[in-house]
Design brief:
7-stranded mixed β-sheet, 7 strands, Rossmann fold, single chain, about 220 residues
Amino acid sequence: MASSDKFLHLNQQLYDYAIAHGHNSDPILRDLAEETRRLGWISGMQIAPEQGTLMGILVRAIGAKSALEIGVFTGYSSVSIARALPPDGKLLCLDVNEAWTAIARRYWERAGLTGKITLKLGPAVETLRALPAAHTFDFAFVDADKTNYRTYYEEILKRLRINALLLIDNVLWNGQVIDPSDQSEDTVAIRELNDFIAIDTRVEAVMIPVADGITIVRRK
């Protein structure tokens, strides 16, 4: 069967139906999303509800205990990940923005997750390279500055245990990845990483059209 027969163009009504028929509603995350919306246009950086649900399911399914997030913003994804970790699980969050992560901290506390989460402010690449060589992760999520995506990919991959998962957000970049006229730094960086992952024999990967596109990478 041709691949073109196996996808739908979602309109708002169908998208709302999909959201309503998953476990995508939670009072804390709902309040966080509303507070983030009040920030204005920058609120578009927040992940979609179904992304958070998907990550939580994956974290639980692989029995992850050690997780990494690059790009915290106001905390929606970190709450989703940390909740799915066992009581002794740990999530390392890396970001550079103190104001946005201050919002995240409040919601981590409200969700009872402060004991699971460590936040480090500063360039993520430097923080990763400063970690002990034995520090590995079972799960990682990247939703940060796009020009560093390839660097993040390599730094994370070397720290993933076998069968660990890495999720990369915005891989469809609002459709700009297939527009050859778009040669902006961010678009080129995402496009080049997508092309590289497609031939990287160290991993198994699938790109799925959830929200702005997510690539799920399993380290072999």
